[in-house]
Amino acid sequence: MKIRFGWLADGAAWAPRGVGAERSWDMVAGPRELVGVLLTRLGLLHPDTPYAVRVAHMQRLMGEVHHPWYERSRERDSWNTARAMLRLRDEALEAGWRPLESGEFDGASHPRLSALVSLERVINVGVAGVPGANLPPGFADDLASVHAELEAIVDSGEAWPLGIDVIECAEEPASLPGRWPAIFALLERCGVKIEVREAHQRVPVELSLVRVPQELSAGEIAAHILEEECGGAAPVTVLAGRDTLPLDISLARRGLPPVAYNPEAAPRLAAQVVPLFLEASSSPVNVRALVEFLSVEVPCEKAREAAGEGQASAPVLPRKVTRALLRALGTEAGIDTRDPESAFSKALVQIGEDTENGAQNLAIVQELCAFTAETPSEVMEARDLERRLAFLDARVEAMPRAAGPAKSVIRQHLSALRDLLDLSGAERLQERELRELVAASAPSPRSVLARPSVTPWNTAVNEAHVEGGTVLWWGAAGVPSRRSATWGKSEIEILETGGARILEAEDLEALEMETKLRALGSATRIVAVAADVVDGEHASLNPVLAPLAGAWLDANPDMKARDPEESDPTRHRAVSTDARAWAAAQIESGRRRRPEELRFMPPSSLAREVAPGMHLMPHKLSYTQLDTLHRDALAWVLRYPFGIKPGNAASVPSGNRAIGTLVHAVIETLVKEGRVPPSYEIPESTIDEIFTRLVPRYASDLDLPGNEAQRAFVLRRAKASIHLLFRTLSTAGIGVLDIEHRLEGVPLEFTVEGSDASQRITVPVSGSIDLAGIDEHGAPVLLDFKWTNSTSRYAGYVAENASLQLATYAWAYGTQRAEVREPRTGYFMLRQGEFVTNDRGLGGRGASSEGGALALFERLRATIEDELSAIAAGHVTSALGDLALASGLSNYETAHKKAAAELADARAEAGRVFVDHNAGYSDYRLLTGLTGDYS
């Protein structure tokens, strides 16, 4: 057998493709593949062991062998410490170090090597089942065992038939690092002929670099080049330097197979279930992780789906459970099973009332809640982790049969995780350590986009794998940074004393660079396509390009003379061209037709046509609906009549919304539990106690590690604001009648002008007023609580008499209670402890006109009538969307402000109203075409 060996040849094709291609060798091998052959021929072959299993064994060994250099790190993060030590041990062993033969050295001056020697004294390499084995072999162990076996054969003088006649090396064996010079010398003594391939420092006949702004455009250019080159007689190689998805998209448009190279595929959906569940079942509860876990649905088999045996996807927990819990968590961002009025408790009642599986489903949720209710700790006991894994195991078993493939992946993940835990012997796990174990035990990701196909080209994933012909170099930018040195100079001296041969990082890079340049020089033509921006970041060129371009220019002095002042060869005009110039040259040469000019412009209006009629009329309304409908009827139609909603994770209260709900609930609890004394001076201890009780229900994120400072800030501001609120109410002579005053079914009448005739409809309005009170003269007082970073937005509403929320509440409260007098209204800013109102009794300026709130509501009613009439006639408008298209999304932009003011004035003159908003916050901006790629 004849083997072609190259330092970077692992994974290379064994034979070239193309017309008349021949080979004189039996296989191509790199270091790992040659070691695999020798293991077989020497009778040393063994089953492979996953790297994570080897780390777990090292973790256990480090628990038995205590060394001061790594002890503190092991206590904090034993998994990553074990992984680092295993990497150091393998690297030293691969370099040829024999730690037990390295002689005496100062362990205090070289603690890393001292720690490695201590571990090596107890290590017994062997696969599972070998008596006394405590560390499965890796590549470094295989290399050492091949080295030792060849030495033994040579020393014994016996003939051992390796079955290898010739090894043709691309590099001089003496220039290779580690054990390789010695191994090649031993192979030669065993009768294997070692030849060094004659080095021809050639350069490609043609070399060009096409620079493109971004990857999708690069994919289009590369696909055009590939399609053109595959029509010729010369063999074509695609050198895939990175993920080829952008290229594959363009190839698919041309009916060509994909290159399908995806080295860093994301974990499959089923492989994400275990980490999601462990995050969701942690204590204190992480609501966002819980929502993600409840939302995840794994795919079902299509064959079973077609047979009517199930749906297209299935959640891990029963669907009735996930739906009820997701609705509850979309209302309140926390879990509180003690309060029967909490959204989560109501969801439990709803789950339990199911006559089919209510009791069983309720038990599932209660067990899940028990995990989140455990005492928070920085570590997790192994037995607590096993209880969680057993829960998930049972839930996976109960999933429908149609989800069989996904269930298999999850079971495989659970089994691998349990094996790692048993091997490591850890009884307590830090949070980071647990995450590393879960990631290490995950099934190997295989992208559905990386399935092999029959292609008219070769595919190479390393520059050293190129074998002549035409090369399309995809991903010539975005290469990882250079390697760093592992060992210090004094450590290298000790390692070399123990038999190691270590090349400096620069020498190893030079060796690899020479190998790559030699392979690329064999190509007839190279076209490199490089995107300036990769994954959203500016990308640097592959470091091989500069010396390759420099050598090509030196070999072609007439081309170099075209741009003599350019010092960077990759920017020389004879080598580099941009996408626009490349396309112009293609058109000029007749190889590409000039495409029709296509201008993709944003729409001039977001208005849509629908079938005329009353089918889209509202059945009930709230202030939120009225606010949306008056400025963006299209968003209202999508959200309410059509039922298109954001995902569950997006609907969970967070940030200011969750905190505002929490502080509001504290005030409500103070009033409804009678904890507000007649003096309105509330003890701080009372606020402390209620705040602590309600955080898990309304803003559980504040209990998560790392949020202590924010929690303290919110409590401090809440105390100050609550004291100021009640003190001001007392001073103004205002009594509190109700907190969270319910508005149920307040009738609101509209006259809708349809396409045929007008029609009178009555729609119930529902909602709640944060605080309803009464002053000493019997006039109602209505306040709305807000927690925002700034008061300016609401101050502007009040100053301009544009507070639609207060106007709606004033109308609804008066209609509900047949109140003749107009209520006194205002906002109370919970974060700032400040009233925003025109009411002088509450600190306002008293600038509003009499009847301002009710008059504003009548203008709002008229605006809603216009919008509903347009919808009934089949025309759905978007005043805010059209304004944003013409003048910008943000209501802080000058053009947007000016256009919004003009629209508001025009509507005011017609007895209507428009209150501006930031269009960039719309959930439908991509769906409606307000933003996005218009091509």
Key attributes of the depicted protein:
single chain, alpha/beta, seven-stranded mixed sheet, five-stranded mixed sheet, 22 strands, 44% helix
Describe this structure in words.
44% of the residues lie in helices and 13% in strands. Helix 16 (382-397) runs antiparallel to helix 17 (404-424) and helix 31 packs across helix 32. With 935 residues, it is of the alpha/beta class. The strands form six sheets. Strands 5, 6, 11, 12, 13, 14 and 15 form a seven-stranded mixed sheet that branches. Strands 17-18-19-20-21 form a five-stranded mixed sheet, sandwiched between helices. Strand 20 (824-829) and strand 21 (834-836) form a beta hairpin.
Give the helices and strands, then pairings.
Layout: E1 2-5, E2 27-29, H1 31-41, H2 51-64, H3 68-76, H4 78-94, H5 111-120, H6 139-156, E3 166-169, H7 180-189, E4 193-196, E5 206-214, H8 215-229, E6 236-240, H9 245-253, H10 273-280, H11 287-295, E7 297-299, H12 302-306, E8 313-315, H13 319-331, H14 343-352, H15 358-372, E9 379-381, H16 382-397, H17 404-424, E10 428-430, H18 431-440, E11 458-460, E12 470-474, H19 489-497, H20 505-521, E13 525-534, E14 537-538, H21 545-555, H22 557-560, E15 576-578, H23 579-588, E16 608-609, H24 623-631, H25 633-639, H26 648-651, H27 655-672, H28 684-698, H29 708-731, E17 735-753, E18 758-774, E19 780-786, H30 792-799, H31 804-817, E20 824-829, E21 834-836, H32 852-872, E22 875-876, H33 879-887, H34 894-909
